[in-house]
Specification:
alpha+beta; 5-stranded mixed sheet; Cytochrome p450; globular
Length: about 500
């Protein structure tokens, strides 16, 4: 009996400690910014509520007033920022607010096993090494696969239309962006557009369900426990990484194709052969190229097609503006098209919340927020781009004309918004996303091909809402696809 009482006492103390750590922020966290109640992060698991509703109901007022809040996310309390001045400081003071991705934040988790130590998460000399290897391939690439794949994608849309013309868009858009990133950046054809049951694709779908399970994302420390489903998740992730690198080996290494090509993967292989990076670093960066390179465009394209369907007047304007285009590069010069793209990024930044920086020392953020050492600091992209103090009273409205009326002014406004940290979808400072150019080329070509062939509308039976957590895009997006008379051809 005494032993049992001791065990029960220890359990009570342990449960009390866990509750204390979850319910209240650390005592050394700044007192002059508000605390978002810990239960907010659990609401999408329990109720039918999306993350836009959560922001507007529980976060917006305090975030706009203070520019920063304390929030529980990923098994710890963090400081989440939306004020441009704070963001500019974070991006500038790279060594104080150091990049610290999942491989450091939650190294025991399934998501850390998936992505590893890569160019997005690395810091300091390691990041500079990765950047020097990968920059050229991400800035100079062939556009032809984007064109061919966009035509194939339109063929898939026709094939998958239901009796009423409705199409479930998410799985098809993922197939498009997987083939795009594999062919343009990794140097092999994933094969998802041409194969209905692609083995590698099916494997990816399975592990993404395991990795992004809402409960284990919220409480990643459960990945340390001997839970059979989590052990299976780790095994599946390891197998996927092996198969992916094997595909790169078969297409680039075994036949020495990497020596004659300028894919990002080719440059990584050369760096590995020259002992600049090790095999794990090679694998981690190939995986992150596939992950970020298909997921972010998938989200952005989903948002673009959703808003084209929601605002038919803008769809018609862009369709008319593109009628005389004969060279895909001319899409860069279209004011309506590009202002629409920029407004989509502003209204629905694909990655809503990013928390991957950790303070290396006690520091002051702004004039009066004292941030302790070893604190994770992130930014709420949706909060930044919907802040009325930054974007005015029309911040909640979809208004592409806010960017300007001619392409020169539009591009100046875009760069200014990024430089002033009014828009952080592509991060900022030295760590600005290297894939921005590639992503926009992919968007322009894909959207151009789609609206040349189809008129898009929102089905009445589709419930209009955004994803409940994580990446920000329409939840289970369906579109009604009506063919236009114009035949733009097919890519074989």
């Amino acid at each position: 009996m005494p032993a049992l009482r001791v065990i029960l006492s220890l359990l009570i103390v342990l449960v009390g400690y866990v509750i204390f750590k979850v319910v209240w922020p650390p005592l050394n966290f700044p007192r002059n910014i508000p605390t978002i109640p810990c239960y907010v992060v659990f609401l999408p698991i329990i109720f039918d509520i999306d993350q836009v509703d959560i922001y507007n109901t529980y976060i917006k007022v305090q975030m706009e007033k203070y520019g920063a809040v304390k929030i529980f996310f990923g098994s710890r309390w963090n400081i989440l920022v939306s004020k441009p001045e704070y963001l500019a400081q974070i991006f500038k003071e790279e060594d104080v607010f150091a990049k610290s991705g999942n491989q450091k934040k939650i190294p025991y988790s399934a998501i850390a096993a998936y992505t590893g130590d890569n160019i997005i998460s690395a810091h300091g000399d390691v990041w500079r090494k990765y950047r020097s290897i990968m920059t050229n391939g991400l800035q100079h690439f062939k556009e032809e696969p984007f064109i061919c794949n966009a035509k194939k994608f339109c063929g898939l849309l026709r094939k998958n239309r239901g009796p009423t013309g409705n199409v479930l868009m998410g799985p098809l858009i993922q197939r498009l962006t997987l083939d795009n990133i594999s062919q343009v950046v990794l140097g092999f054809n994933f094969g998802t557009l041409s194969e209905e049951t692609n083995e590698l694709h099916q494997h990816l779908i399975k592990i993404k369900k395991q990795i992004f399970h809402p409960f284990f994302l919220t409480f990643p420390f459960f990945d340390m426990l001997p839970i059979p489903s989590r052990k299976k998740a780790f095994q599946d992730i390891s197998k996927f990484r092996e198969v992916l690198v094997s595909r790169v080996k078969n297409d680039l290494i075994n036949n020495y194709k990497f020596e004659q090509t300028s894919y990002v993967s080719s440059d990584l292989i050369k760096a590995y052969n020259n002992n600049i990076i090790d095999y794990k670093q090679l694998t981690d960066n190939i995986v992150i190229l596939l992950v970020a390179g298909h997921e972010n465009p998938q989200l952005l394209l989903s948002n673009c097609l959703y808003l084209l369907a929601k605002y038919p007047s803008w769809q018609k304007l862009i369709w008319k503006e593109t009628q005389n285009i004969s060279n895909y590069k001319d899409l860069n010069e279209l004011p309506l098209f590009n202002s629409f793209l920029f407004e989509v990024v502003r209204l629905y930044p694909p990655l809503n919340i990013i928390i991957n920086r950790k303070t290396n020392k006690k520091c002051r953020m702004g004039q009066d927020i004292i941030v302790p050492k070893n604190t994770y600091v992130g930014y709420h992209n949706f909060g930044v781009t919907h802040n009325r103090n930054v974007w005015g009273n029309t911040a909640e409205e979809f208004d592409p004309r806010r960017w300007g009326t001619n392409i020169a002014d539009i591009m100046i406004a875009w760069r200014s918004s990024k430089n002033s940290c009014k828009l952080t979808s592509f991060h900022g400072g030295r760590r600005a996303c290297l894939g921005e150019k590639l992503g926009f080329v992919e968007m322009r070509i894909s959207i151009f091909e789609i609206i040349q062939q189809f008129e898009l509308t929102l089905p009445k039976e589709w419930k209009e809402k955004m994803t409940p957590a994580g990446p920000l895009c329409p939840y289970n997006l369906q579109l009604n696809i009506k063919s236009r008379e114009k035949d733009v051809g097919v890519c074989e």
